[in-house]
Design brief:
With 141 residues, the chain is mainly alpha-helical. The chain is 87% helix and 0% strand. It is built from four helices and no strands.
Length: 141
Amino acid sequence: MLEDPIKKIKSDYERLAKHEEGLDMVWKTYEKLNADSLEVEENKSQKLASKYTLQAFTELLRVQIQMIGKISPKIANDIETDLNKWQKKATKEIEERGLDEMDESNIGIVDIRNRVQLVRRIIQDTVETFEENLRGYEPSL
């Protein structure tokens, strides 16, 4: 009865957690490439690699948001709207000079990612709470 939806949500959450590992790897690569490209202004290939790595990160983040959408469409829509706004705003800045750690656009993408991580933790806590409650639940007949 109630166990099936919880199992489905738990399965979706586990896929989301695995996806986070790849997202971490891409973000660390972006940070390294971006820091190096900011230090060496004339290194156009480094800047280009940084730009494409950030695009890959953004798309992976979008996939996570879609995964969250299977569990909570409203929250996913809100986060995706913010991601779309960020992407429009940051595109020009990225083209011109890359993102410095303290730039508003860089802070914006980090904030969006933090929100996705918070939602993941809330989902995990909710599933664990439901599972604990189901273990102690005895239906009355």
